[in-house]
Design goal:
TerB-like, mainly alpha, single chain, 11 helices
Length: 226
């Protein structure tokens, strides 16, 4: 078999895999978003608007995505298979899974400054199915701009800016800079898109980058770093 044929087969395989990832992403995200919005027993217009904003739903997509959203919202079936499928598809790129979880946090707080107990339970289940630890869950919430209740946070949790960066208050300037640079590389929208995250998530990823940058500036002031 010639190199040209092998290359063509590889390109076709890559394109097919990309379509599968896109389909898994779209279905999983819509179902999880619908279940998130309904977790507290009701769905508000603010939550629907947040869903459209987070995933940048265009007017052309509203009918098809809206129909899927409504079906998922009313379905008696659980969300777990969809979360597990996303975890499997993106198991090599946990940063994409983090962005999905961040989107769910944003939807959950769209109609209130705080999450309800049922919403927290839902988010913790999704987070665990994605393979995130309890510490990861708290850190992702902070990076999403969400403050969890005291009961959901570790007893000795560092200030929020340190939590966003994933470092302790006692971290050295070198450790802080290293953590910050790693986060910038990991969560840059261009890299996330290259890893399979659709363009629709750019707004959410960009907002997270802003919070990471702001947290780094705050930590630098606290530690007297230049």
């Amino acid at each position: 078999m010639s190199n040209d044929v092998l290359f063509s087969l590889w390109r076709n395989h890559e394109a097919f895999a990309a379509r599968l990832e896109q389909a898994a992403f779209t279905m999983g995200v819509v179902v999880l978003s619908a279940k998130m919005a309904r977790a507290d027993g009701r769905i508000s217009q603010k939550e629907i608007n947040a869903f459209k904003r987070v995933f940048r739903i265009t007017p052309e997509q509203e009918n098809s995505i809206g129909l899927l959203f409504d079906r998922a919202r009313l379905s008696p079936y659980g969300f777990e298979p969809y979360a597990l499928n996303l975890a499997q598809v993106f198991h090599h790129t946990p940063s994409v899974l983090e962005e999905i979880l961040s989107g769910l946090f944003i939807i959950g707080t769209a109609d209130s400054e705080t999450l309800s107990p049922s919403e927290i339970v839902f988010l913790k289940k999704v987070s665990a199915l994605f393979g995130f630890s309890t510490e990861d869950f708290v850190r992702i919430a902070a990076r999403s701009g969400v403050t969890l209740p005291e009961s959901e946070r570790p007893r000795h949790q560092p200030p929020e800016a340190f939590e966003v960066l994933g470092v302790d208050e006692t971290a050295s300037p070198q450790e802080i800079k290293r953590a910050y640079r790693a986060l910038i590389r990991e969560h840059h929208p261009d890299k996330l898109i290259a890893q399979g995250m659709p363009q629709e998530f750019v707004a959410t990823a960009t907002e997270k980058m802003k919070r990471i940058n702001a947290a780094y500036d705050t930590v630098c002031k606290i530690k007297g770093m230049t």
